Amino acid sequence: MVNKSISLIGVPTDIGAGHRGASMGPEALRVANLSARLAKRGLDVVDRGNLQGPLNPWLPPQDGYRHLPEVRAWNEAVHEAVHAELALGRLPIMLGGDHSLAIGSISAVARYCREQRKQLRVLWLDAHADFNTAEVTPSGNIHGMPVACLCGKGPKELVEVGGHVPATTPDVFRQVGIRSVDEAEKRLVRESQVSIFDMRHIDEVGMKRTMEEALAGVDENTHLHISFDVDFLDPTIAPGVGTTVRGGPNYREAQLCMEMIADTGRIGSIDIVELNPAFDKKNQTARLAVDLVESLFGKSTLIR
């Protein structure tokens, strides 16, 4: 059964992103009533407020990385906060913030899984594979690197967050909705053998079969972590992101994806990242994200 004790952790920074604005994501999710909507589902929801960290200096890359010391500081804060909630027996939902913050949250979840002898499965719902390194990144933006860093490919400052190197291995990831991978990044992804269910796969076999494959092997000893980048969704329904990529899942496909995850009863932690209210229309993307997160906790059209 899914944990009914939920902790919301705001992480208001766009430190790893290429556009300003993801720092406003946590507040947009609160304005869209995330806490009240989850409480209505019978969950015990506590909002822990926002973590603190360095301001975004908005500087060019140094040695292939933008804002490395600041990204490290934010991720260490995320790691400690997420691990503390898991240790209390609560289900943490990180309200991002950009996707570089997943280094902190997933390293904390991986640490918790090692302590509890649980199997970790990460569902990475995203338009991007986020497996760049300093050698291949076109931009130096660290929000394009968290999966690589978690798998031990990246700067010492980030691969060592949480103290266990690598924090995770590529086999724990199932990436769904991918449709934008940089040329050199494709080679890294292939070499690491991360499981990717790209949009072509979803087009060919449908979302139902894709999610059955992505969730195969999840059992009662599995901790399921959902890393939900809002740019996973098609920009026609979710314009409020910094890096829109056409051709993502539509509303019904996204709902089915979330409902099938909910059906496992194994969700243990969630990231909601890359929501950028600066690009949104009347907070519609935040409202949609809240709607989908409700579906992760069992909201469906009919009583099944």
Automatic annotation (TrEMBL):
Binding site for Mn(2+) 2: 126
EC number: 3.5.3.1
Reactions accelerated catalytically: L-arginine + H2O = urea + L-ornithine
Pathway: Nitrogen metabolism; urea cycle; L-ornithine and urea from L-arginine: step 1/1
TM region positions: none
Entry-linked InterPro entries: Arginase, Ureohydrolase, Ureohydrolase_dom_sf, Ureohydrolase_Mn_BS
GO BP annotations, alphabetical order: arginine metabolic process; urea cycle
UniProt GO cellular component terms: cytoplasm
CDD domains: Arginase (cd09989)
Molecular function, one GO term: manganese ion binding
Keyword Metal-binding: yes
Entry's family note: Belongs to the arginase family.
Database matches in NCBIfam families: rocF_arginase (TIGR01229)
Protein name: Arginase
Species, as recorded: Dyella solisilvae
